């Protein structure tokens, strides 16, 4: 018995059908979803409940969030272990000789595909952690593996944004990029009632309709509005509730642009869009904070060196001692954390890289 057993069989039916039909045809899929879209829930449902589209077909789930370090070698090593566990027909673990991760993964796949009926879809959750230029060779390796087993090996890559166009791998996804937006009304109603049951509540139709209208069925906002309704029944002042405020802060902290909002079908949810400023950035930022946030948004999940950040934020200050610059940058980062982090004392979005600078994690 798993949590997925409680989900209705029709959960995200349109998305599940589109994904399975595509990978059954031997094509790759990019699942793009902004913060709180429910990507991991959909991938979990696919792995545990969706019917395999073909005999011999297997989904190999890889959660990049669970990697100790988000490096290509660690991902390939995890993929090999998962494939050996879920899709290895012979039970062999490969050579005992120490191998490079890519070589070991290649040998593992050769054994898997010795079964002519075997089809494998590698599901990569939070694959956007690897969208950095220095990983170009890694993306080429993944492309080479797919070309070796064309139409038998596919990738389902999930992240907040589609793959950048400058990687050789990216062209595999151009025709099959699926943006994850709000739940269907049936799925949203099931989610609301499931929340109520967990809390020992029984909401009538007006309460359910109020939650639906306010959240637009967007998963993270729906959960937050449910929490607001549970603590203040009938108040409907959802925007002021701490759970809703925290949800909105987290959503906008990743800096989604207007095109991503349109693709995700979110521009018609007033409660969500109410936090967007005229410039489309986080509300309440000073000019320097906005410059810093803009630089982080342009370099997500990368190490941003101190000197590069200082040049971006203080381009007018040619003469500026290093000690003063570092102190000013540290104070600016602290103020920005206070505005975008749920717990500034334990930051999850802006991480300090000792001796170098900072890394902005776009989830």
Could you explain how this protein is built, in words?
- The model is unreliable at 277-281 (pLDDT under 50).
- 34% of the residues are buried.
- It is flat, with a radius of gyration of 22 Å.
- The chain has 363 residues and is of the alpha/beta class.
- It has 14 helices and eight strands.
- The chain has three domains: 3-179, P-loop containing nucleotide triphosphate hydrolases (Rossmann fold, 3-Layer(aba) Sandwich), CATH 3.40.50; 185-273; 287-360, Arc Repressor Mutant, subunit A (Orthogonal Bundle), CATH 1.10.10.10.
- A five-stranded parallel sheet has the order 2-3-4-1-5, sandwiched between helices. A three-stranded antiparallel sheet has the order 6-8-7.
Number of helices: 14
CATH class of the largest domain: Alpha Beta
CATH topology of the largest domain: Rossmann fold
Question: Would you identify the CATH H-level superfamily of the largest domain?
Answer: P-loop containing nucleotide triphosphate hydrolases
Task: Report the order of strands and helices.
Answer: HEHEHHEHEEHHHHHHHEHHEE
Overall average pLDDT: 87
Structural class: alpha/beta
For the sheet with most strands, the description reads:
5 strands, parallel
Based on the coordinates given, report the CATH architecture of the largest domain: 3-Layer(aba) Sandwich
Count of domains: 3
Strand content: 5-15%
DSSP strand tally: 8
- Give, in spatial order, the strands making up the sheet with the most strands: 2-3-4-1-5
Stretches with pLDDT under 50, minimum 5 residues: 277-281
Task: Quote the distance from N terminus to C terminus.
Answer: 29 Å
Coarse morphology: flat
Please state the CA-atom Rg, rounded to the nearest Å. 22 Å
Share of helix among residues? 40-55%
């Amino acid at each position: 018995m798993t949590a997925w057993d409680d989900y209705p069989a029709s959960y995200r039916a349109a998305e599940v059908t589109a994904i399975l039909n595509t990978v059954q045809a031997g094509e790759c899929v990019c699942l793009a979803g902004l913060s709180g879209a429910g990507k991991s829930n959909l991938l979990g449902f696919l792995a545990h409940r969706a019917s395999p589209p073909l005999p011999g077909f297997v989904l190999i789930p890889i959660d990049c969030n669970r990697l100790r370090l988000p490096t290509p070698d660690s991902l390939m090593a995890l993929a090999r272990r998962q494939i050996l566990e879920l899709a290895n027909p012979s039970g062999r673990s490969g050579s005992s000789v120490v191998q490079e991760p890519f070589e070991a993964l290649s040998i593992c796949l050769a054994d898997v595909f010795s079964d002519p009926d075997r089809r494998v879809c590698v599901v990569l959750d939070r694959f956007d952690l690897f969208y950095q230029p220095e990983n170009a060779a890694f993306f080429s390796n993944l492309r080479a593996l797919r070309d070796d087993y064309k139409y038998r090996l596919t990738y389902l890559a999930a992240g907040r944004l589609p793959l950048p166009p400058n990687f050789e791998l990216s062209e595999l996804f151009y025709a099959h990029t699926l943006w994850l937006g709000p739940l269907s009304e049936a799925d949203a109603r099931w989610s609301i009632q499931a929340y109520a049951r967990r809390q020992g509540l029984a909401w009538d139709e007006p309460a359910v309709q109020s939650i639906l209208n306010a959240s637009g069925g967007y998963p993270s906002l729906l959960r937050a509005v449910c929490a607001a309704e549970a603590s203040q029944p009938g108040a409907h002042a959802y925007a002021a509730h701490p759970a809703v405020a925290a949800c909105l802060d987290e959503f906008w902290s990743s800096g989604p642009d207007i095109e991503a909002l349109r693709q995700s079908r979110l521009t018609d949810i007033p409660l969500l869009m109410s936090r967007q400023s005229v410039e489309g950035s986080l509300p309440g930022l000073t000019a320097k904070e906005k410059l810093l946030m803009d630089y982080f948004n342009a370099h997500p999940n990368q190490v941003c060196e101190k000197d590069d950040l200082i040049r971006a934020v203080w381009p007018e200050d040619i003469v500026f001692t290093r000690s003063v610059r570092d102190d000013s940058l540290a104070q600016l980062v602290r103020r920005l954390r206070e505005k975008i982090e749920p717990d500034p004392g334990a930051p999850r979005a802006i991480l300090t890289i000792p001796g170098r600078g900072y890394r902005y994690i776009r989830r």
